[in-house]
Amino acid sequence: MKTIDAPSDQIVVTPPYARPRRLRRTAALREMVRETQVHVEGLVQPLFVLPGSGVHQEISSMPGIYRYSVDTVVEEVRRLAELGIRGVLLFGIPDHKDEIASSNYDPNGVVQRASEAIKREVPEITVIADLCNCEYTSHGHCGILKGESVDNDATLELLARVALTYARAGVDVVAPSDMMDGRVRVIRENLDAHGFQETAIMAYSAKFASAYYGPFREAAESAPAFGDRRSYQMDPANRREALRETALDIEEGADIVMVKPGLPYLDVLREVRDAFELPLAVYNVSGEYSMLKAAALRGWIEEERAVDETLLAFARAGADITITYFAADFAARARRR
Ligand code: PBG
Ligand code: ZN
Q1: pTM
Q2: Fewer CB within a 10 Å sphere, N or C end of the chain?
Q3: Atom 11, ligand 1: residue with shortest CA distance
Q4: Are the CB atoms for 249 and 257 separated by under 8 Å?
Q5: Taking the domain 40-336, which CATH number applies?
């Protein structure tokens, strides 16, 4: 057997004075000095709702995530509430799509009915409704088209109309994710004018045009039929613009601001945290979920530890609220700990 030759060089070892390892020695010490915690109360579970009843349909690009109908979503929300989850984010997948997203402002639309049912059966849960049009338009863009481009101001009217139907259905927080300019102000003005001063707005403020929305677009059937969203969502290269978008949403009346996606934009999250006082949300999006899940299903990564580390990263970077498809799993695990 070959052994390593003992080197003849004389080595000097100066014992360190500072030894940070002292506080890493036992689990109790590590927990005592831990700087950041993930709170189940700050996690929001996204939920996809479609018409019909008895639906519990797994999304192929997002193993472990399902599409529900109004009746089954209420059961799921009950389970989430029992796990300690305080908020859900609703996405509707309608039967009917057209040029002007008319099923989005139908008082009997799928989000409206889901919200009514949840607020009736599980009133303690906060219902947040994603406010966008791409699931409802035949062309899959987030607003009303004029030629091949999305008409900003025509879309503002549509967003306000939809927001009112959500507020009437008991939605606690509307969350515009379309990235039209001036939407927060128009939504706030119209909610107020119709007596919904208490309905909050969580603005997707720094929402980047990202490849990580891919699995979601399959889940929600919302991929654009032509082109992409780069004329309204932000360029991934832009930090300063993220601060400007956030400042505008705050001036216009947003109650909560958001950075989206999460992991590739932790720097932006930290900068927004340092620059503004409002509650800050981060969206750990579908592609981030699917990547981790795919690796875990192949045994290439330890799912639970990777999820814990990911959610911790958002808290450490300054998020108060984390929207994540892992919310239920994390909450169930936190129960057992
Ligand atoms: C609607 C919307 C999208 C997401 C949230 N709201 C899709 C998009 O902008 O194309 C993405 C969520 C996710 O990927 O988990 N505009
Ligand atoms: Zn959209």
Answers
A1: 0.96
A2: N
A3: 213
A4: yes
A5: 3.20.20.70
